[in-house]
Each structure stands twice: as C-alpha cells, then as structure tokens.
Amino acid sequence: MRVAILGGLLQLLLIPAFVSLGLWQWHKAESKTALQTSLDTRSQDAAIAMPTTPADIETLRHRRVILRGHFDASKPATT
Q1: Which of 20, 35, 44, 50 allows an S-S link to 65, with CB 3.0 to 4.6 Å?
Q2: Would the CA dihedral through 9, 11, 14, 16 be positive or negative?
Q3: How many Å from the N-terminal Cα to the C-terminal Cα in the chain?
Q4: In this predicted structure, what is the pLDDT of residue 62?
Q5: Residues 20, 68: Cα–Cα separation, whole Å
Q6: What is the mean pLDDT of each successive set of 10 residues along the chain, which is 79 residues long?
Q7: Which residues does 65 contact at the CB level (< 8 Å), separation at least 6?
Q8: Is 48 inside a domain boundary?
Q9: Is residue 49 part of a domain?
Q10: pLDDT at 12
C-alpha cells in the first residue's frame, strides 16, 4: 500500500515535469528554425559595404559584408 502511494506521488510529480520539458524542447526547436530561416535569407542577400560609422547591429546581423583596409605590421594586434 505504501509503495503504491509513493508511486502515485512520484507520477504526479514527474508527468508534469516531463510534459514541461517536452514543451520547452518544442519551443526551442521553433526558435532555432526561425533563426535558421533568418540566417538563410540574409546570407543569400548581396554583400554590403561595411559602414564607416557605427551602425545598428540588427541591420548587419547574418549579412555578408565587404571590408577594405590595409595591414599595418608595425602595430601589434593585441595590447
């Protein structure tokens, strides 16, 4: 009798936990699909020149950019 009550209580705790975890995985998959769609769409767009002034990060997210510059070996890359 005691084992049956303990088993029932365990089921009452674990079933909602497993359902909650399953829903979390479902929503995680939906958000990853949306992110992948955004990445695929933006990466197919034409490359844009990197702005010389600060730009909104969202306009550059997942975009291909063109950078122009030169390498100055006299200055270290790290400080």
Answers
A1: 50
A2: negative
A3: 71
A4: 83
A5: 50
A6: 89 95 96 92 86 82 84 79
A7: 47, 48, 49, 50
A8: yes
A9: yes
A10: 94
- Helix H or strand E encompassing 66: strand 65-66
DSSP 65: E
Residue 28: inside a domain: yes
Query: Of the candidates 60, 30, 33, 56, which has an alpha carbon nearest to the alpha carbon of residue 47?
Result: 60
Q: Helix, strand, coil proportions of the chain in percent (round to 5)?
A: 60, 5, 35
At 18, list the tokens. 């497993």
Cα–Cα distance, 61 to 24 (Å, whole number) = 26
Query: Does residue 31 belong to any structural domain of this protein?
Result: yes
Please report where in the chains the tokens 């365990």 appear, as a residue: 10
Structural domains in the chain (count): 1
Which structural domain range is residue 32 located in?
A: 2-66
